[in-house]
Amino acid sequence: MTTAEESMLRANAIGTPLTRLDGTEKVTGTAPYAVEHPVDSPAHLHPLQAAIALGRATGIDTSAAEAEPGVLAVLTHANAPRLASTGNGELEILQSGEVGYRGQFLGGVIAETPEIARRAADLIRVHYERYEHDVELRADRDDLYKPEQVNPAFDTDTAQGDADGALASAAVTLDATYSTPMEHNNPMEPHATIACWTDGELTLHDSTQGVYWTQAAVAPLFELDQQQVRVISPHVGGGFGSKGIPHPNVVLAAMAARLVPGRPVKFPLTRQQMFSVVGYRTPTIQHVRLGADEQGRLSAITLDVVEQTAKVKEFAEQTAIPTRTMYAAPHRRTSHRLAALDTPVPTWMRAPGECPGMFGPEVAMDEMALACGLDPIEFRVRNEPETDPESGLPFSSRNLVACLREGARRFGWHDRDPRPGTRRHGEWLVGTGVAASTYPVFAMPGSQATIRATPDGRYAVRIGAVDIGTGTWTALTQIAADALEVSVGEVDLEIGSTTLPTASGAGGSSGINSWGSPIVAAARTLRARLDEHGGTVPAEGVEATEGMPDNPHTSQYAMHSFGAQFAEVWVNADTGEVSVPRLLGIFAAGRIINARTGRSQLLGGMTMGLSMALHEESVLDPRFGHVVNHDLAEYHIATNADVGSLEVDWLDEHDPYVNPMGSKGIGELGITGTAAAITNAAYHATGIRVRELPLHPDKFLR
Amino acid sequence: MDTRIELRVDGEQRSLTVDTRTTLLDALRERLGVTTPKKGCDHGQCGSCTVLLDGRRATTCLALAVAHAGSEITTAAGLADGEELHPVARAFLEHDGLQCGYCTPGQICSAVGMLDEAEAGWPSSVTEHGEGGAALDESELDDEEIRERMSGNLCRCGAYANIVTAIREAANGSGR
C-alpha cells in the first residue's frame, strides 16, 4: 500500500505560470462560445415571459405574431412538447398556463431573424387570472420551515453542548443580526444555447458549467437516453454557479427546436431576462450570538439563518456551514430556516453558503474582538481550534493563523491604532480591517479520463470537463504532463463535450480535484501498460481509462482551504461614498497548479467580494415580484475604477491527503471574507458598524 | 425593411443585407459571422461589443448598422498582424488580463482606442486641471487614469488588476 506522500505527483509543470493555452483564441475573440458555433440556417427564438408573479394565463392570442412575415412558429403551452415529470418545477415549463413567478417562460417565437422574433413576441397578448403573490422575506414570518438538508447535502441544524447556558454565563457576549441581499451572478456571457433535433436526437451547444450535468437534466425531460443528448461547450463566458445546473432557457430552446426539426435554434438570453430565469443568491438574515470569557476565549457560538427559496423548486443555501469549522467553542449551534416564496428559484452563486456565511460571522468576530479588548487577529488566533470543531477530525492542513500573521506583516498591521473614526485624509475617513476566508475541499464522484499514447509521441487526454474561465485547459494539461512524466507540449487535451468520457461539472471549486485525480490514475495505468511494451508505443497506440479513485483520507481528515484578507477603506465624510484603495489576500490552499491562472482565480474572487461589499443588490419590488434594477446600468458590479491596489499571495502548503496533486480548490475561496474585511475597515474608518450589505453611501450618513 | 450596405471589417470589404432594426453588433455576429465582438448586455452598459469604428472605440450594440454603412471596423481579431498579436493583446495574455475571455476582445479594443485618446491628450474625469483646462500629458497615464478610462468595460471574472498591468506595460513598451 502506498502512503499519501508516495502517491503525490512530483511537480514539474505543476506550479509553473504557464500562460493560458486557450489565451490566443481569447485575446483575438476567436474562441467560440455557445451561440457562436457556426451552424447552417439557424432560426432565432425570443421568449414570452409572464407579466404577473402568480396566477394563470387564461388566454394567449398569438395571431398577430403568427402573421408576421418571417415567423416560423409560435410556442405556447397549447403546442409545447409534453415533458416527462421529473419533479423539477423549475424546468417543467409550458405544461399548463400556470405562473409561479414573474418572468417565467410562457412560450416563445421562432423566426428567421432575431429582430423578427423579438418584434413578434411583443405582439402576443396574454390574459391572466391573477392570484395574490407573496415575495417578501422577513425573519419574523410565521411560515418559515426547516429543509431536510442544505446544499448540497449538509445537516440543516447542528448543536453541541449548551449554547444558551454558556451565553447566559459568559463574561462577554454579542447578539447581532447581519444581512446580505439578493444578488445575481451575471456572467458576462449571457446564458445561451443552440438546440437542434436530428433523427429524434438533440444537440445542444450550451453555455454550461457541466456538459454532463446538462445532459443528465435535459434527457429525462424529453424521455431520451442520456447519449441521445449531445452537449458541446468548449468555452464558457463565466458562470459563477448560475450555469451549473440548466435553467428553463435550455428547455425552452429544445422545445422550440422541436417545432422546426432539422433547423438549429439560437437562444441567447438578454441581460434583463437573466434576472428572472437563471437563478440568484438568496438574501440571508444571519442571527449571530457569541459568548467569551475575560481572556477572549469563545465559549459559545450560534448562527441562525433565515433565507428564501421558491415554491416551484427548493434550493436551501448552506450559509451556516463555515461557522461549523472556523473557531473553537465547546457550546455551539447552527440552523437554517426557509421562506418559500413566489419568486424565481435561487441557485448557486460563487461560494454559495461560504460567501454570505463568512460575512455576518466575520463581522461579528471583529465586534467581539473589540468587546474583549483584543486585536481582531489576536482574537482569532486565540480561538483557533485544534481539530475540526464539529466533526472532531484533524485537519489535513489548516494554516489560517499563518495566513493572518503573514498578511499582517505584509499589510503593515502591527502599528494599527484600534480606535475607530480617528484617521482623516482630507474629506475621507480612513480605516483598515481584516477577516478570514475558508472553503471546503470538495470532490465529486463519477469522472473518467481516457489517455491515449500514439507512436508519434503524442498523448491525447480526454475528459468531459469544462473551462469557465478558471484555466481548466491549462491546468489539466499541466497535471497530465506531470502524471505522464512528459512535457506539456506533448499533451493534447480535449474537454467540453459529452462525446468525451463522463465528468462532473465545474462547481464547488472541485474541478481540478475531480478531473485531475482520474487523469493521474489513467496516466499511471497508461505508464504501466507502456512498461509492458518495453517503453515503446506500439503502432496501434496504447490507451487507459480510469475513474475517480476513492480517497480513504476523506473520512479521516477535515479538508478546507483558508485565508486572511486585509482591506484599507476610505469613507467620504460628506457623501458616505466608500472606496477601497488597498486589498491584500494571503491564502493557504495546498499546491497551486498554475501560478498565473491560480492568482487570477484569487484576484477574481476578491474583486467579486469587493463588488458584493460596495454595490450588489437586486431590488425585488414586492408589488410586482420582479427585480427592478434588472440590467448592468442599475445592478452595479465593480468596475475597473473600483479596484485599487489588489495583492494576492499564498503560502506553500503541503497536503498529501487531499488528492495526488496536493491541491485544494481556489475558485471560490477568494470571495469569502472580502466583504467582511471591507465592512470591518469601514467601521474602523468611521465608527459606524454596518451589518447589512451592500455598503451604499446612505449607511454612513447618520 | 431590408437594406444593402457595405462594411470594411478587419481589412476585408463585406457586402450584406440588414434589417433597418439590426444593430452593428448583430450585423457582425449574425449576418457576417464575425463573433469577435461579444454581446453582454445589448444596452451599451458592459463594453463587451467594443470595436474600433473608423478608428475610435465604440459599442456596436448601440449603433444601427444602416447608420454606419461604408464604415471601417477593426475587431480584436483584426488588430493582429497576421500571426503576430497586437502588443496590447500580447500584454493581456502575458499578464493574464482575462479569465473567461468573453469581455476580452472588447477590453482590448477599448484599450487600443483609449491609448490613442491619451496620446492625443484627451482628459478623463481624473485628469488634473492645469493652466488652460484639462489635458493629459502622455507621461501622466498612470494606473488611476487607466482604471478610469477602462471603466466602460465590465469584467465579471475580476481581471481588472491584471488588465491595468497589461495596459500599463503595453503603453510603456515600444509596440505603439
From TrEMBL, chain A:
Residues 28-132 form the Aldehyde oxidase/xanthine dehydrogenase a/b hammerhead domain. One of its GO terms (molecular function) is iron ion binding. The keyword Oxidoreductase applies. InterPro entries: Ald_Oxase/Xan_DH_a/b, Ald_Oxase/Xan_DH_a/b_sf, Ald_Oxase/xanthine_DH-like, AldOxase/xan_DH_MoCoBD1, AldOxase/xan_DH_MoCoBD2, AldOxase/xan_DH_Mopterin-bd_sf. It comes from the Bacteria. Keywords: Molybdenum, Oxidoreductase. PANTHER family: ALDEHYDE OXIDASE 1-RELATED (PTHR11908:SF132), XANTHINE DEHYDROGENASE (PTHR11908). This is Xanthine dehydrogenase molybdenum binding subunit apoprotein.
TrEMBL record, chain B:
PROSITE patterns: 2FE2S_FER_1, 2FE2S_FER_2. Pathway: Alkaloid degradation; nicotine degradation. The keyword S-adenosyl-L-methionine does not apply. InterPro entries: 2Fe-2S-bd, 2Fe-2S-bd_dom_sf, 2Fe-2S_ferredoxin-like_sf, 2Fe-2S_ferredoxin-type, 2Fe2S_fd_BS, Aldehyde_Oxdr_Iron-Sulfur, Beta-grasp_dom_sf. It comes from Halopolyspora algeriensis. Keywords: 2Fe-2S, Iron, Iron-sulfur, Metal-binding, Oxidoreductase. The keyword Oxidoreductase applies. This is Xanthine dehydrogenase YagT iron-sulfur-binding subunit. Residues 3-79 form the 2Fe-2S ferredoxin-type domain.
